[in-house]
């Protein structure tokens, strides 16, 4: 299995809007969750002998509707499935607003296709009801065919209901306290925070904004709501050229994919792993000018990467000691994702890899 490598091409950094770099503190969405029942399935529901909670839910619902089930009755239901319903409550949502919901089977139902979600209360982390969900479950991609043969191209146990929930309670959202609001950068960075402060003060006047740390920026804003909303609208559309991010290498240990956000160079190192060995070194060369040229003696370094594999195969790269070259060379001799993972971790531990290594 050969790992894939993706290196982002270094392009000039372009200006971005502040709304793409930061958000207003307190303006956030809230997750909602509820337990419900999907009915009307075509024999693809839960096997009630193995999911007793489905039967208990049916009996409890029927009792609330005035229907009493005789004691000892064994319900053999094939058209009902117990599900979890999830959604997010956007900021400033008001009662009556419609939300999309995701319906996921929690039993052993084979499919939710064609089912109808019964009225399900959706609660927040405080156990209060903020929305009610109900509607027909849509499972996309069912029954698609490829090359003349049927193929399942979607999870049949998960579906969505567009506009399936109605907001019943609003979450109070305050835009700062007094004449001050706070912006929060999506990624903590002192340089970017300074650049945002500079752009705000240039547009709205000195001392309008001040950085509290590498993430939080305090901004003075008008107190009346309409003026504050207009001020935030203008502020969010200011363009700022963010600072260059720290070098990062992301390795997916399952697929072997490697992504680098910029060129990453290596220091001198030597790594031995199984039947592979990697040596990175720099050869210095001296340039001596002619005696009468009035020049200076200069020393340049040429980085070499040497990779050997058992069996005598040898690769030598002289284009520069970059991590991209190492990964490509390892791929060419059949290194596995596990080999790459071990080698990159060893380089990071030795200090030769000067970039954040994130394994997902």
UniProtKB/TrEMBL annotation:
Q: Which Pfam families match?
A: FlgI
Q: Where in the cell is it found?
A: Bacterial flagellum basal body
Major site of localization recorded for this protein? other
Which controlled-vocabulary keywords does the entry list?
Bacterial flagellum, Cell projection, Cilium, Flagellum, Signal
User: What superkingdom heads the lineage?
Assistant: Bacteria
Q: Assembly and interactions?
A: The basal body constitutes a major portion of the flagellar organelle and consists of four rings (L,P,S, and M) mounted on a central rod.
Please describe what this protein does: Assembles around the rod to form the L-ring and probably protects the motor/basal body from shearing forces during rotation.
The entry assigns this protein to a family as follows:
Belongs to the FlgI family.
- For this entry, the protein name equals Flagellar P-ring protein
Q: Which organism is it from?
A: Undibacterium cyanobacteriorum
């Amino acid at each position: 299995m050969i790992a894939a490598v993706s290196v982002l091409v270094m392009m000039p950094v372009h200006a971005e809007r502040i709304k793409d770099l930061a958000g207003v503190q307190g303006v956030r969405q809230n997750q909602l969750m509820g337990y419900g029942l999907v009915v009307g399935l075509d024999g693809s529901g839960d096997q009630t002998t193995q999911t007793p909670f489905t039967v208990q839910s049916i009996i409890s619902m029927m009792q609330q509707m005035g229907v009493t089930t005789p004691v000892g009755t064994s319900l053999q239901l094939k058209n009902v499935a117990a599900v979890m319903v999830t959604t997010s409550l956007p900021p400033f949502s008001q009662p009556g607003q419609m939300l999309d919901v995701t319906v996921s089977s929690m039993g052993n139902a084979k499919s939710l296709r064609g089912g109808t979600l019964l009225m399900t209360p959706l609660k927040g982390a405080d156990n209060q009801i903020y929305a009610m969900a109900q509607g027909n479950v849509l499972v996309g991609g069912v029954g698609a065919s490829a090359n003349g043969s049927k193929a399942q191209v979607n999870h049949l146990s998960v579906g969505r209901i567009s506009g399936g929930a109605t907001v019943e309670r609003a979450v109070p959202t305050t835009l700062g306290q007094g004449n001050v609001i706070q912006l929060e950068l999506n990624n903590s960075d002192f340089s970017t925070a300074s650049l945002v402060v500079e752009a705000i003060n240039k547009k709205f006047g000195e001392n309008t904004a001040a950085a509290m740390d590498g993430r939080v920026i305090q901004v003075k804003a008008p107190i009346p709501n309409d003026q504050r909303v207009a001020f935030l609208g203008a502020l969010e559309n200011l363009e700022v050229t963010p600072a260059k991010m720290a070098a990062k290498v992301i390795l997916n240990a399952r697929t072997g994919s490697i992504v680098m956000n910029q060129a990453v160079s290596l220091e001198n190192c030597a790594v031995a792993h199984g039947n592979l060995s990697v040596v990175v070194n720099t050869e210095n060369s001296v340039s001596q000018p002619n005696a009468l040229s009035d020049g200076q003696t200069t020393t340049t370094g040429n980085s070499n990467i040497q990779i050997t594999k058992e069996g005598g195969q040898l690769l030598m790269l002289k284009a520069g000691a970059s991590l991209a070259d190492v990964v490509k060379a390892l791929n060419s001799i059949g290194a596995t994702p596990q080999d790459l993972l071990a080698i990159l971790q060893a380089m990071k531990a030795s200090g030769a890899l000067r970039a954040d290594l994130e394994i997902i």
